Amino acid sequence: MEQDLFKSMNMGYSCYSCSIEESLEKLQPGSHLSMIYDTEQEWMSAIIPFLKIGLKRGQKCIYIIDSRSPEQILNYLREQGVDTDQALAKGQLSIARIDQLLSGAGACGPEQLLEFLDSETNKALSEGYPALWVTCEKTCFYRVFADESRLLEFEAKLNRDFFGNHKCVAVCQFERKKFNPEIIKGVILTHPLLILGNRIYRNFYYVPAEEFLSHKEGERQVMQWLSNIKSFNHQFYFLQELIDSIPTPVCYKDKNGVYLGCNQAFAELMKLPRENIIGKTISEILPDELGLQFDAMDQELFANPGIQTYEWKIEYEDGSFRNIIVNKALFHNPDGEVAGLVGVIFDITERKKAEEALRQSELKYRLLIENAADGIFTLNPEGIVVDVNPAGLKMLGYSREELLGRNVMEFVKDDREQIRSRIESAENGAQSMFRTHLLKKDGSMIPVEINAQKRHDKFFQSFVRDLSEKIKMEEELAKIDRLNSLAMLAGGIAHDFNNILMAIQGNLSLVKMNLAPDSQAFEDISDAEKACERARDLTKQLSTFARGGAPIKELTGIGNLLRESANFVLRGSNCKPEFQIAQDLWSAELDPGQMSQVINNLLINATQAMPQGGTIKIRAQNVKLTKEMIESGIPLSEGDYIKIEIQDQGEGIAEENLEKIFDPFFTTKSGGKGLGLAVCFSIVKKHNGYIKAESSPGKGTTFIIYLPASAKKVETKAEDTSERIKGKARVLLMDDEPMVRKVGKRMLESLGYEVEAVEDGKIALEYYQVAKEVGTPFDLVIMDLTVPGGMGGEEAIKKLREIDPEVKALVSSGYSDKPIMADYQRYGFSGVITKPYEIKGLSAVMDKLMNQNSN
C-alpha cells in the first residue's frame, strides 16, 4: 500500500493540481493525511469540506474534538448546506471527545486506539457504509497518552497495521503552535500525505513504518541530504549558465584587439549580428575615426594594466543614441601572460534621462511647495525658520518677513518638551509624526499634525497640516461610536420589555371588556393602560436609539408635520410657534412617527429652555448642498435637502456642553434621562440626514436638521376610522414567549377567532401541514419574528410557502427596527403588527388581511 502510494513521488512536495475539494473527492480508503495549520481559516478550508464530502459520498464520519465544541462544528457544516440534523439522527455523523469514545478509559496506548479504529471501521461497514472517514484534533491525545512520543508510535503503527487493510480515511489535525517542534517533525515523517494551506501534497519526507519504528529514519535523512547536495550542484551550474547570459553587454578580445566572443546584449548594442563581430577588430566594425579612438584606449589599457572606465555616447545612423559606461580589464592565460581584455558595458541612457528629469523637477519643486495646501517649514539645526511656503504663512497669520528667523519654539505654548523630543528623534534619522497645537499671530491656537524629518544637509523639513476640520469630523464619528456602543443593549431591552408589555396590555384590555364603563375598576384599568402606553413610548425610544428604529418610510409633507407637532406640543403651554415655512417646500421619504418624535423632543427642549414663555421660531426651506458647503462641516453628500430650524429664546447652551448634547445619557436637567437628543441624532442619521446645534449663552439655541428631499408630491390619505371588528376564521399563533401566546390567543378568541398557539416555527409547520391534510386548514398564521434557539418567522415563512403558496401570514415582533418589519412583503408575509399591540389594532389588521385577496 505504501509503495503504491509513492511510486510517482519526486523531489520536494508534489502538489495535486486540483483544489482541496477536488483532492478530497479523490481520496480512497487507506489514505492517511496530516493537516498542519496555523489559522482558523486554514482549518476551515480543509476539515469542513472533508466532512461535507464524506457525508455526501455516503461515508460514516466521526469527528474527535478537543478544543472545539460540537455546536461549532455543526454550525460550520450547516453554513455549507449540510443537513446535520438528518446526519446525526441516522448515525452517519458523530462528534465526541476521545475520552467519551474510549468510555473514559484514561491514559492508554497505541494498541487500544488501533482496536478502537478497527472496531469503528468494522461497525461502519456492517451498517452498510462504504468506509469510515475520521478526523481528530490531535491535542486530545495528550489526554490518553502519558508520553507524547507514543503519539508518533501510534501514527507509524497506523500505517503498518491498519490502513493497508481497512476501509478508513483519516485526517489528523495538528495546530502547529500547540505541539513541540520535534513532534511536528515526527508527524511529517509518519504521514504519507500532507495538507498545507489549501492543497494536498505527497510527502517525500515520509519514512515507512518499519524504518520509523526501528529508528532507522536517520539513515533515510542522510540519503535525502546527499540527494539535496547533488540537486544543489545542478542548480549551481544552471545559475552559472544563466549569469553568462545576463542582459548586460559583455565582450572580450585578444591582445591584438580581435573579438573572441560577446553576448547577445553586446550584439544588440552594436546593432550587428554576433557573426559580424567575432573575429574582427573595433576598427573593422566602427567608422575609421571612431574605431581608432577605441583602439587607442585599448592600447592604453595594455600599457597601463588596471580597470579602465569611461563614459561614451553611441550615435546610430537612424539618429538614435545610447549613453554608456565602459568598464574594461585585462585577463591572463594560465601562464600569467596577458591574453586579452574583457569589457562590460552599462547602458546609462535612462539614468541620463532621469538626471535631466531631476533637474526639471527641481524647477517644479519650488512651484509645488509654493502651491501646497499644507504648511511646509524648513528649519536649521538650531530650530530657526529659514524657509516657509505661503500655506504656512496663512496658517499662522504672519508675513514672510515676520516669520523667517524666528525659533519654532515661539509658536509652541504647552508641548515644548514633546517638540524637543520629536526634534531629537528626527536628528537620529527617524521620521517623526505627531500632533500638537501652534500659536497663531492673533493669539489663538490651532490643532496640527506635523511630519518632521532631517534632510541630508542637516536641516529639518516639517510638513504641517491644519487638523481643525478633521478633528470636527473625528468628533462626529466618536459621537456615533458612543451611540453604537449602547445599541445592542438598548435593542434587547426594548424587545424583552415589549413582550412583557404585550402580556400586561393584552390582559388589561381583556379585563376592561367585561367592566362597566362607569365603574371604578374600568377607570383604574384605563389608567393602567395609559401607563402601558407611556412604557411603550419608552421602549420605542430605546429601539430607535439602538438602531434608528428601521424607519418605515413614506412620502411626507414636512410643513404639515411641523405644524401638527408644534400645535400638539405647545398646546396649553406659555410658548407659541412662529412658522416660516417655504410655500414650495419639497417632500421627503421618512417615517412620520419617528420624525414627529424628533420634532416633539426639540420643541419640548425649547419650552423647558423658556420657563417664562416666549416664541419658538420654526423654519423650513429647500437647500441644495454644494461641495463647498460639505467641506465647511456638513457630513452629507451633494444634492437636494430640506433644512429645518427650531430656535428658542432661552439662556442657550454652554460652549463646553455643546459638543456633548447628542451623547447618550448626557443631560444638564434635573431629573433628565439624557435620551431625547441621542434618539433625535439616531433617527436623523438613519434617515441619511444630519442634525446639529448652534448656541451662545444668553442668546438661545437653534437646532438645525438636514433631510434628503424627494421630487415626488404627497398624496392626501383618507382618515382611518376603523373600530374593533369581530372575525370568524381559524388562526395559528406562533410565539416563543408563553405569556404572549396566552394573551394573544385570548385576544383573538375574544374577537371570534378559533386559535391554536405554538411556541416554535417548526411546530407551526407541523400543525399547518396536519390541519391542511385533515381538511381543517388555518385561514391565517401569526408568527413571531425571532425565536431564540428555534425556528423564527423569517425562516418558517419560506417553508410555509412551500407547503401552501397562498398562505396568509402576519409577522409580529418587538424588534420594530428589523428590515423585515419595514418590507414584510419581500420576505413573503401578508401583513405586519408590532408588539405590544392592543385589541383594536389587532382587529383592524386581522380584518384587512382576511378580506384581501390571497397574495
Structure description:
It is a single chain. Helices cover 44% and strands 22% of the residues. The protein is flat. Residues 1-16 and 718-722 have low confidence and may be disordered. Helix 20 runs antiparallel to helix 21. By secondary structure, the chain is an alpha/beta fold. It folds into 6 domains: 2-213, Rossmann fold, CATH 3.40.50.300; 250-351, PAS domain (Beta-Lactamase); 372-466, 2-Layer Sandwich (Beta-Lactamase), CATH 3.30.450; 488-547; 554-708, 2-Layer Sandwich (Heat Shock Protein 90); 730-851, Rossmann fold (3-Layer(aba) Sandwich).
Structural class: alpha/beta
| Average pLDDT score | 84
Total strand segments: 30
The CATH class designation of the largest domain is Alpha Beta
Share of residues in strands:
15-25%
Task: Kindly report the name of the CATH homologous superfamily of the largest domain.
Answer: P-loop containing nucleotide triphosphate hydrolases
Instruction: Return residue spans where pLDDT drops below 50 for at least 5 consecutive residues.
Output: 1-16, 718-722
Q: How many helices? A: 31
Q: Strands across the major sheet, in which order?
A: 1-8-7-2-6-5-3-4
Percent helix range: 40-55%
What radius of gyration results from the CA coordinates?
A: 42 Å
What is the CATH topology of the largest domain?
Rossmann fold
Shape: flat
Q: Provide the domain count.
A: 6
Task: Give the termini separation.
Answer: 63 Å
Which CATH architecture of the largest domain is right?
Answer: 3-Layer(aba) Sandwich
As an assembly, this protein is single chain
Main sheet makeup:
8 strands, mixed
